[in-house]
Amino acid sequence: MNVAPISWFLILGAVLFTIGTIGVLVRRNVIVIFLSIELMLNAVNLVFVSFARQLHSMDGQVVVFFVMTVAAAEAAVGLAIILSVFRNRETVNVDELNLLRW
Amino acid sequence: MNPGLFCILAVLLVASALSVILQPSPIRSALSLVVTLFLLAVTFLLLDAQLIAALQVIVYAGAIVVLFLFVIMLLNLQEEPRVMARFGTQCAAVLLGSLFLLALVRFAVAPLRPPASAATAGMAAAVPPGFGSVATLANLLFTHFLLAFEITSVLLLVAIVGAVVLAKRRLV
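^ Those are the sequences you sent over. The predicted structure of the assembly is below.
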């Protein structure tokens, strides 16, 4: 197959992102859903780094730096929310967390 | 770039990522995610991103996943009767995921528009000196991306305060 080597990295990123998406849709434990979201963020990071390598531009790596920072902030706040939900409802199963559902 | 090394990495990455979403126990999922993140760090090294690879191990595997493990152990969850969604939902998720993957791969194999610079050879060409090093990234971070950098520091502050307020035990 006559494709640039970057395509292999992009396909790998696409596969990882899809696995993360399926994890979010299929799993019922909030924490595992969160782990799947981290997986998706990392798949996107892989694509950013691949394009940085392909285009010989450091901008992609700087964006990955920011993505990591935002992921850390998101994980801290998200886990705090999970903790306080668990204190109130004694569950982390998304089927039973329907407070915001109309 | 060594194609054999990439193939081994890709197979291991997909296997560990599948393990993240298929393990019934959240602890095992988190540990599989650590493996995935380490393998991704190696992939970043293949792509000449040394600093990002180091940050990946230190920040992701070292800090974020440890936070996850800490919360999982703090919650002390019982065995759940149902880990996955209903079978119909699973089929729909896998179907939609496959369609999504097809669409993504369609773009991944599309021919790239050549970059404006002399680096038309892309992956095959050697990177310029200093590519992926701390100095180059720091230079960009403190010049071109300075505003984003400062906003990120505010975001981190807000996240710290938010996490403490949310996780604090109510004193009522």
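The CA atoms of residues 51 and 60 of chain A lie 7 Å apart. Residues 6-90 of chain A form a domain with the Helix Hairpins fold (CATH 1.10.287.3510).

Shout if you want it in another format.
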